[in-house]
Write a structure and sequence with these properties.
The complex is a heterodimer of chains A (356) and B (198). Chain A contains 13 helices and ten strands. By secondary structure, chain A is of the alpha+beta class. Chain B has 198 residues and is an alpha/beta fold. Chain B contains five helices and twelve strands. In chain B, helix 3 links the parallel strand 2 and strand 3. In chain B, helix 4 packs parallel to helix 5. Chain B is elongated, with a radius of gyration of 18 Å. Chain B starts with 26 loop residues before the first strand and ends with a strand. The chains are: A alpha+beta (356), B alpha/beta (198).
Chain lengths: 356, 198
Amino acid sequence: MALQFNDETFRDDYSFHNSERAIKRFPFPFDKDSYMYAVNMEQHRGGPSDSIYEKRFDVDEHYVSEMRDRAMVLADDPLRCQSLPHMTLAGWDLLELIMVSKSEDYPDLFELHRDGDKWHWVNKPLGIDDHFTFMDETTLPYGPMEYITRQTQGDFCVLDQRDDNLWMDAGTITTQADWSLDFDIGMNFFEWHAPVPLAHEKGIFVRALKFLLNIQQGAPARRLNWTMTVNPLLDTSPENYHKWGIQKTSLTPENIGAKQHLRVELQTFFRLPRSNALVFPIRCYLCAFQDLMTVPKWGRRLHRVIRDLPEELATYKGFIDNRPIMLDYLSQFDDGLPTSNGIWPEIDGEPPLKSD
Amino acid sequence: MSKFEFPTSILSRPVYGVLEARAGHQHLMIADAEGAGAILDIATPDLMAKSHIIFILKGTDFADELRALNPARFYEGPSYAASVSRIQRVLQDASMGLQLYLAGTEGLMGQVQSEAMKVGIPHTAIQTEHRGSTARRMQCVHCKGITEDVATDPFQCSHCNLNLFVRDHYSRRLAAYQAVCIDAEDPGNVPAQKGLYE
C-alpha cells in the first residue's frame, strides 16, 4: 500500500490526525475489560497484515511529521539525545539493525547498498541520500545512534548489559511519557523504574529483567504500555512539564472527545550483535477518544478499564484529576454488552455503540 | 551526635550504612561537618597510619579532633566546591584495593561517589555513613540547575525560580535528587513549605 504522509503538528495548533486506516490499526492496549501491570511480553515476529506488528520498525502516515517534531525538540534541548562513551559501538549496531530492517521491509521507501564498509543509505520520505563508512563516526553528520534515530519513529533506549542488569547508558528520547533521559542515564533497570507504583511489589520488574537479559539475537520481543495525554503532544517530557502541564486542565465536556488521547507505547526489544547491548524502542501511538469510539468494542471496553483502574495507577499516569470527566464522556458509549477477548477491533463482529 | 533514620523509599534512593574499618594498605576517608564523627568512631592508630583524611568543614569545628588522630595525610577545606579538584587529583592516584570511606551529608557523599565512579571505582565498593544535615542536593528537571542543601518541600529553584517539589528519585551520576514544578497545572497554587521528613 502506498503510504501518504500527513503534514501535521504535535504542538501549537495540534493538526495531528489519524486516518481511518490509522484508527483501525491503532494498538488498543486492553485485551479485556480491566487492566493491571503484567509481564505482557511476546515475540516480535510480525503480525497480521498492515498491523503495527507486521514490520520490525513500523513506518506510518505520521513518519515525516514526527521526525520534524523530533528535530525541533533536539534543537531546543540537545540533552534529549545522549550516549555514554562506551555505547558508540551499540549505536552502530542500532544503525545497522534499522537500516537493514527498513530497507528490507519498505524497499520502496528506504534503500541500503553495502560494499564492505562503504555504505549508501537512501531515505526517500525524508530526502536523505548519504554515503558513509560503517564504524567511522567522522563520515556521518551525527553519532550513529543520533543519525538513525532522527530518521526512525519512537524513542530509543540503548541498554548496556553487565552485572546481571541492564543500564540506561544511551538514548534518544523526545516522545516520552514524562521521564527524563538526562536524569536517568546511567541507571540500572530497577533504578530507572523506581518511581513506578505497585509493579515492584508484584515482582514485575524482577521477572521482566530476567526475560530481557535472555533475549537473543534475531528473536526480538514486544509489549504494549499506555497512558493518557491531553492534546496530541509527543513531547510530554518532565523538562517541559511546566509548559505543557496546564493543558491537562483544558478539558471540557465539549472538547474532550477531540482533545483527550489514549497514548500507547509499542515497546520492542532487540539484542544487538557486536555490543551485546539491548535496544528498547518505545514507539508512541496517539488516538483521540472520539476516534476510538468509532470501534464499538474499544468504546465499551475503554470506559470499563478507566472506571475500574486502581487509584495509584491513575495518579501515576497523571489523569486522576481528569478521570471523572473522562468517565462522563466514555460512559455514554458503554451499553453494558459483553466484549470479545483480545485487543483487535473486530469491527464486523460487535454491534454498534448506542451513541454512535 | 544524633543519627537520622531515613524512611524506606523507592529503589533509586540511596541507602547508607555504618563505616567499618576494612583490610587494605590504602584508606581514603572523605567527610563533611558531622561526618567527622563516623571517622572518629572507627579510628585506630594502626588504621590512621594508612589513612588519608579529607575533611570539609562546612562551618563546623571538628577539624582539630580529626587532626589529633594523626592520620598519614590530612586536609581540611572550607567547602566541597573548594576541595573538589583536590579530591579528583587524589582519586586519580587510587590504586587497586584502595578503601574509600564517605561520611556526612548526602550531597557530599553523592558528589564524591560520582567522582569515584568516573575513575572506575564501582559505587558498590564505597562505604557510606550519613551524619548531620538531611538537606538534599536537588536538580531542577526544567533548567537543570542544582540547588544545594534543600531542607524544605517545596522550594524555589536557585537558578530559574520555579516552585519545585522534592522527589525521592535520585541520580548517582548527577549526585542529585529530582525536583519538578509543583504548580504547573495550577500556576501560583504553591503549598506551604514543610521541612523534609516532617
